[in-house]
Design goal:
homodimer, 352 residues, alpha/beta, Rossmann fold, 6-phosphogluconate dehydrogenase C-terminal fold, Alpha-Beta Plaits, four-stranded antiparallel β-sheet, 13 helices
Chain lengths: 352, 352
């Protein structure tokens, strides 16, 4: 089956409106539905499609509602027409299980684009939100091959990279690379909430990085985590076991056990694939002091650009108490010396 | 007492050599000591000072040796001369306790600059490593006022911002804002070490941030954590208690308890002071798609600079599988719209 449209979007928040914009960009007819009429007006005003009319006959329905509502809305969509139905929810087993073994489940194929924003609502949407992001496609046992194809075609036309896996695999994967990391960040961040101010004054980039995701909306993440409870609890159990080993190792001054645990952490950081998804290139950081006013970063990047070295990542660590920032430029290891020499020749203060 | 020098540095690794470079920059005579003669040669070759001679008479000794050796080296330095002695170790109670109540402890004042690098050794050193960083100064009960002044003067001449606290306060603070975050990152990262490759393919920026610091050297962090065991174990105990509450909340689908725990995490992320150390300015992120080749980031920052908006922080999220990166520019909330409009008028693809 080829995707020809129309494509119906149920739920015109950040993700739904972004899918609509991407489908419109690709020339498809897009029909918008939302319990909040003003969201439909906003999304259609942005060019994400037009309000759905009763006589419309979608080929594909994309359910983009909050996690707790997924099961019901998917079931209703399957009952309402013969369209293929997918969703963009962050857990995949529970909504599928809720459908039971109805023959209609052959038309349902779950999806989960790995994209988002700390903002929400249609105004935060973008046709390019999914550009290059992994988009999990998670057919259940009864899913029809042509329904799977249609959903993978949607992922591709939105700019995503389809990654096919079972719903169970998906939920176990996101527990590990998203839900449990979020909970660990929250557990850590909570320990800072009532710390003395002058203790927190010593904070550096490390604790900021470890806790950053914990700033996410508790209601949304609560729904996400609750919807993936079995996989999350299993992994948290592993964490608890290892935490006990860690407490014992630190408390008994067992340095070799402690180093072993820290070594497993190092191994884990190396297991995360390179951002490009391609082969892992060894990287090195170049540190540069940059005055903290408009134009200085521009000048730094212009000078770095002149050197012909591609900057792969950037971190800025502002100095508390003075208007100078330390900028970390991550570049291919074999380009680092060239970049350093080049920046130094342009009067930048670098830190080798 | 005014700092007039000479200043002796014992241990010419990253930190010792950087202190030497900063003191030389300020015009002081610097004497270098290290068990590894080639480190002294390298450090003096870099301009961090000259090898110490037996007849030298330092005014201030800065001990920059690995954590496990601190106590002994500090005691020897106090016994060897009448100089004031400080150190740059990351734990402060244990070395002081090791000294006992000797009158000489009046000449010892602990220090801890909050600076470092993922690299080590004298070649990674820089006179500006400490620029604007907090530098904890931790006098014990017997420390003489003039010794404290001298150590604070050292912190300032190295570019640091002295933060005075007791050794116990310091150790409790770094357990919270450094050691335990590191251990939590390591615990989380270890869960990724043997995960299936296609699960890890779904990794985004969140899990990368949460685990980044866990890439640090296990031997070094093992020493640091072991030296601060009481404070670390106390805080890990709190984490364990809350982890149990969390497992119970997720396992029993207690959404309100779960949201409460996540809410404490949000509160904690807000407790970390603004990077400038000044009043917290509300920030907003602007997302821009940037082709991944040399010069494009330069063009983006040049265009952002033209808008007159100061970029406070940057994150780059490369798209797996395609040569486009999503760049997040963090700016003052009230400048975000102006920056977006300005970038869009220069043909950048932004994500509102």
């Amino acid at each position: 089956m080829r995707l020809t449209g129309p494509i119906e979007i149920i739920g015109t928040g950040l993700l739904g409106t972004s899918v609509g914009l991407a489908c419109r960009r690709a020339g498809f007819e897009v029909l918008l539905t939302d319990v909040a009429a003003e969201h439909v007006r906003t999304a259609s005003g942005l060019g994400a499609g037009r309000p759905r009319r009763p006589e419309d006959d979608p080929q594909l329905v994309v359910v983009c509602v909050p996690p707790a509502l997924l099961g019901d809305v998917i079931a209703n969509a399957l009952a309402a027409s013969d369209a293929v139905v997918t969703d963009v929810g962050s857990v995949k087993s529970a909504p599928l299980a809720a459908l039971g073994e109805d023959v209609a489940t052959g038309r349902y194929v779950g999806g989960h684009p790995m994209a988002g924003s700390e903002r929400s609502g249609p105004l935060a949407a973008s046709a390019s939100l999914f550009d290059g992001r992994p988009w999990a496609v998670t057919p259940g046992a009864f899913a029809r091959p042509e329904a799977i194809e249609l959903v993978e075609e949607l992922a591709v036309l939105c700019g995503g990279v389809p990654v096919r896996m079972t719903p169970e695999e998906h939920d176990s994967a996101v527990a590990r690379i998203s839900h449990v990391p979020h909970l660990m960040a929250a557990l850590m961040a909570a320990r800072l909430a009532h710390a003395p101010t002058d203790h927190l004054a010593l904070s550096g980039q490390g604790v900021r990085d470890v806790t950053r995701v914990a700033a996410g909306d508790p209601a949304l993440y609560g729904q996400i985590v609750a919807g993936n409870a079995p996989a999350v609890v299993a992994l948290l159990g592993e964490v608890r076991e290892q935490l006990d080993v860690l407490i014992e190792a630190v408390g008994s001054a067992d340095r070799s056990r402690l180093e072993e645990l820290l070594g497993e952490g190092v191994e884990g950081t190396r297991a995360i694939p390179a951002k490009h998804g391609g082969p892992i290139t060894p990287m090195r950081s170049v540190f540069v002091s940059v005055p903290d006013h408009p134009g200085e970063l521009a000048r730094l990047f212009a000078d770095a650009g002149e050197s012909g070295v591609n900057v792969e990542d950037v971190r800025i660590d502002h100095d508390p108490g003075r208007p100078v920032g330390l900028v970390e430029l991550v570049v291919a290891a074999d380009s680092a010396d060239h970049l350093l020499t080049s920046l130094e020749s342009r009067e930048w203060v670098t830190h080798r």
